[in-house]
Write a structure and sequence with these properties.
The chain is mostly helical and 507 residues long. Among the domains are: 207 residues, Lysozyme, CATH 1.10.530; 65 residues, no CATH class; 51 residues, LysM domain (Membrane-bound Lytic Murein Transglycosylase D, Chain A). 40% of the residues lie in helices and 9% in strands. It has 21 helices and 8 strands. The strands form 4 sheets. It has a two-stranded antiparallel sheet. It is elongated, with a radius of gyration of 33 Å. 31% of the residues are buried.
């Protein structure tokens, strides 16, 4: 009998301990990693997958009874999609509004810089505007996001699918990173998927998993008419089963900001304003940076599809985005400084190639090849390295106001040949050691000062961002006169540090 009493006493203590055990809660969400790298990104579905199966979540969040209200927000005209807040959606709402809320808020703010343009394009193509929030789930609105599988850009297109919907993907251009072109392609793809499944949420699932996956499921399981008919037992990835709930959770929170304590102030669209300039010659970001006075990184943000920091060398015309208010300045500069007769080609380095040989072969110069390829003239070349080479018409190169150093040349022989003071050549080329000139090196030749009546000669040193047009306006002279006084061709580029001779009227 004594043992029976002890048994009941131990059992009572055990039950009491169980009654104070903390109930199991949802798995904590990890922080969303910030996408900061340009071309190497981790999986852009940045929130973790739930550790529990969605069927377990359904038990924790039972469907509402007839007497319960079903989230009245979804019954308002806020949405262009018809959907309900299921336990799966509610789970992701709790994740995004919990520890991940600061990150969700941050990426939502970034996305809303793009949202008006995306919605405008979706309206034009008859696609529900709510679907633009898929971009937030796909890439966190980062044009340079790249998944492990190679899906790239705002809408995470694979190369094959991108080309199918009219996007250019090559070594120079990746239009998956272009906001307007990729969004138009995404609208077309979503419309195509909807035409197959007649359900927008199934179309979203197919966007993530591939249309073939969802087609096989609907054929094998005829009962699948909507996304919510898909179960974990079916052959579909856990990522796709979470994809649509994530999208709907982001949509609900974004359109009910106050309820979820999100920032209510939307970003100003002025941050992303730009103008478009059609350029008919090869142009680099560093050149556009000098013309506009904006940083190269800002020019790159405006043109993320130009993946090599320049326009395609073979393109006859290319539309480049420049900061608002600078289009006229860029057009004026390019029309004066770039010779339309110059064409650009690419050359892949093979064994034995040198810049000097290439300059001679293509009627170019070592300096201009190095400038176009963004390398130093004394850099070592490697096999299969690709260079961009400006090819000049023969007459243009002969009359150019430069001298390409040949074997046996010295500064003394060059100055004698052109009748120019040796020290002037040293100064204009900023030569540290005048004795170290090598074959293939391009030297700029200072002009002889022509006589000009009623004019006072001055020397002007070119500053960063200067153009001939700017200088002509500053000193009230014409660009043609500046070119004539300095014996410059219309295609000649001026660089910071160059010295120009100007003749100013006494008045």
């Amino acid at each position: 009998m004594k043992y029976v009493h002890w048994f009941w006493f131990i059992l009572l203590i055990f039950c009491s301990a169980c009654s104070h055990t903390t109930p199991k809660t949802y798995p904590p969400a990890l922080n969303m990693p910030e996408i900061s790298q340009t071309y190497e990104e981790e999986n852009t579905n940045t929130l973790p997958e739930p550790e529990e199966d969605l069927q377990v979540i359904k038990k924790k969040h039972p469907p509402p009874t007839d007497t319960q209200e079903v989230c009245p927000e979804i019954l308002t005209p806020l949405y262009t999609l018809n959907f309900e807040i299921t336990p799966q959606v509610q789970y992701w709402i709790e994740q995004y509004s919990g520890k991940n809320r600061p990150y969700f808020d941050k990426y939502l703010y970034k996305f809303e810089l793009l949202q008006p343009k995306m919605e405008q394009l979706f309206v034009q193509h008859g696609t529900p505007t709510d679907l633009v929030y898929l971009c937030l789930i796909e890439s966190c609105a980062n044009p340079n996001a790249v998944s492990y599988a190679g899906a790239t850009g705002y809408w995470q297109f694979m190369p094959k699918t991108a080309r199918r919907y009219g996007l250019t993907v090559n070594r120079w251009i990746d239009e998956r990173r272009d906001l307007e072109k990729s969004t138009i392609a995404a609208a077309a793809y979503l419309n195509h998927l909807h035409s197959i499944f007649d359900d927008w949420l199934l179309a979203c699932a197919a966007y993530n998993a591939g249309e073939g996956t969802i087609i096989r499921i609907t054929k094998r399981y005829p009962q699948v008419k909507t996304f919510w008919d898909i179960t974990p037992q079916m052959p579909i990835k856990k990522e796709t089963r979470s994809y649509v709930p994530k999208f709907l959770a982001a949509l609900v929170m974004a359109k009910n900001r106050q309820e979820y304590c999100l920032e209510t102030d939307k970003p100003s669209q002025a941050d992303s304003s730009y103008e478009v300039v059609s350029v008919n010659t090869f142009t680099t970001f560093d050149e556009l940076s000098e013309i506009t006075g904006y940083s190269m990184s800002y020019i790159a943000r405006l043109n993320p599809e130009l993946i090599r920091g320049c326009t395609p060398p073979h393109a006859k015309v290319y539309d480049v985005k420049v900061p608002k208010g600078t289009a006229e300045k860029v057009s004026a500069y390019l029309s004066r400084s770039h010779d339309p007769q110059v064409r650009y080609i690419t050359h892949t380095i093979s064994k034995g190639d040198t810049l000097y040989d290439l300059a001679k072969k293509y009627n170019s110069s070592v300096r201009e090849i190095a400038h176009a390829s963004r390398i130093s003239f004394n850099d070592l070349l490697s096999i299969n390295q690709m260079l961009i080479i400006p090819v000049y018409p023969l007459k243009a190169r002969k009359t150019s106001h430069v001298h390409v150093v040949a074997k046996g040349d010295t500064l003394l022989s060059i100055s004698s040949a052109y009748g120019i003071d040796l020290q002037d050549i040293v100064d204009i080329n900023k030569l540290v050691n005048p004795e170290l000139i090598i074959p293939g090196m391009t030297l700029r030749l200072p002009p002889k000062l022509p006589l000009m009546s009623n004019g006072k000669p001055i020397t002007y040193q070119v500053k960063k961002g200067d153009t001939l047009w700017d200088i002509s306006k500053q000193f009230a002279v014409s660009t043609k006169d500046i070119l004539r006084w300095n014996k410059l061709e219309s295609a000649a580029l001026i660089y910071p540090g160059d010295c120009l001779t100007l003749y100013l009227s006494e008045s």
